[in-house]
Design goal:
alpha+beta; OB fold (Dihydrolipoamide Acetyltransferase, E2P); elongated
């Protein structure tokens, strides 16, 4: 395998005196790990490239026996310097990056999350005002992009339109909405608000640059957090990082 792509560095570590392993997000190959031999001291091949949250054009080849990837060289495309100067924004970005690694194992298709992540970082790099709930919206949209898009238009059992459901419930095991009359005793559900479901529908059709101007209320944000976390936890297991983020007030 020999290819070149613009990739986002998401994690690095040293495995020999001068060598590094690098985990990166690729638009066509998902999350992958490669080895930058001599990466700790090479100013010519990897000058300023190998920091987390760098967008880099990497040239990659297969290692011996084609069982690992070698980063031959890299050219820095964007280091997001303004974002990294702001500790709050940097924390948001790193938290979101951890979430991507949680829902997108190595080798999974991540083309949708890749473009969303770059949009998200570019918005935080260039927009003067970023709301504290920005990571929550990213988590929701990233989940939707990676196969956990809920069906919110109708009651999944009687077909009643969302705008006519007075007290909807969210079936997180199915990613669907039901009206109170159609709720069954063994359903895995929680009560939510119609306005929150409408908000999530709007989120699924918009970009991060638009979110920066939004002002959702506390109830909507709480509902959104609960819906996203319940979906991810049910399908992928525990998700303590999101719980800590919410409870610490970062949302």
């Amino acid at each position: 395998m020999n290819f070149a792509e613009k990739m986002l560095v998401i994690r690095t570590g040293r495995f020999k005196e001068y060598d590094l392993w690098v985990r990166f997000l690729s638009p066509s190959n998902g999350i992958l790990t490669g080895f930058a031999f001599g990466g700790c001291r090479s100013r010519k091949r990897f000058s300023g490239c190998l920091d987390v949250l760098n967008l880099v054009l990497f040239k990659i080849s297969s290692g011996k026996r084609n069982n690992y990837l070698v980063l031959e060289e890299g050219s820095l495309i964007n280091g997001y310097p303004e974002l990294k100067k702001d500790s709050s924004r940097l924390g948001m970005a790193l938290n979101s990056l951890r979430f991507v690694q949680q829902i997108c194992p190595e080798g999974d298709d991540s083309s949708g999350i890749y473009s969303l992540m770059l949009d998200y970082l570019e918005t935080m790099e260039t927009n003067p005002s970023i709301p504290s709930f920005f990571p929550l919206l990213f988590r929701a949209r990233a989940s939707f992009n990676h196969g956990y898009q809920p069906s919110l238009d109708f009651c999944c059992r009687c077909g009643l339109e969302l705008n006519k459901i007075a007290q909807p419930v969210f079936l997180y095991s199915e990613g669907k909405v039901a009206c109170t009359k159609c709720r069954q005793g063994n359903d895995r559900v929680f009560k939510t608000h119609r306005e929150s479901l409408i908000f999530l529908k709007a989120l699924s059709a918009t970009r991060p640059i638009q979110w920066a101007g939004w002002t959702p209320g506390a109830i909507i944000l709480q509902d959104c957090f609960q819906m996203v976390e319940s979906l991810v936890e049910y399908h992928l297991g525990g998700n303590s990082s999101g719980e800590k983020m919410y409870n610490s007030g970062q949302l």
